[in-house]
Amino acid sequence: MNAQWDASAVGRSSGASGNSPGATMELTSEERVLARARRHGRLVLIVFSGDFDKWMAAFSLATTAASMGIEVRMFFTFWGILGLRKKRRFARKAWLDKLLAVMLPSGLGGSVSRMNFCGLGAPFFQFVMRRKGVTGLAELVALAQRLGVKLTVCQLSMVTMGVEADELIEGVEFAGASRAVADLQVDASTLFI
Question: Which CATH number fits domain 40-192: 2.70.40.10, 1.10.10.350, 1.10.1200.30, 3.40.1260.10?
């Protein structure tokens, strides 16, 4: 098969022929089973950054690999966990954790690593992506969860950053660095983003 895979095609009909260069394809359940049987490992993404553009890259890779039947695990640590924070909570926190809650960003797309434009970089790129019909970050995160990508948050980073479990999006797991190290030991391709 010489088709270009497009994770955003999962769950919708592409209308393309499938065998022409540049065509997008939707995987059937049989193709997913075959892809799982053919793979010799899995993909582990260590997400250290909370930058919008790096998260776009991480979730694009994760959803593409998952749509091809590859088992994908994402381990979020330090700045990376902040994008998973759906809300800031101040109640029942020590004063230092309250200060961190005010100072640290929450939610998807806080900033970009280049061309941040005084904080306008992420909204600018989101606008450009919408205009060009590119799948947005929130949709990629939801797609990753639907495809079975395992999202694991580093417990030490949560303590350090003053983030608690009820502040994070639904469907994440919590573990120490030993989980990431164990995942890396089992025939996995690894990317550090």
Answer: 3.40.1260.10
CA separation, residue 97 to residues 87, 100, 155 (Å): 14, 5, 15
Please check whether residue 73 is in contact with residue 152, taking contact to mean a CB–CB distance below 8 angstroms.
Answer: yes
* pLDDT digits 0-9 by tens, 48-75: 988 878 888 999 999 999 998 889 999 9
- Average the pLDDT over each of 122-126, 130-134, 169-173 and give the range with the smallest value: 122-126
pTM for the whole structure:
0.70
**Domain ranges within the chain, ordered by starting residue:** 1-38, 40-192
Q: Rounded to the nearest 10 degrees, how much is the dihedral formed by the CA atoms of 68, 69, 71, 76?
A: 40
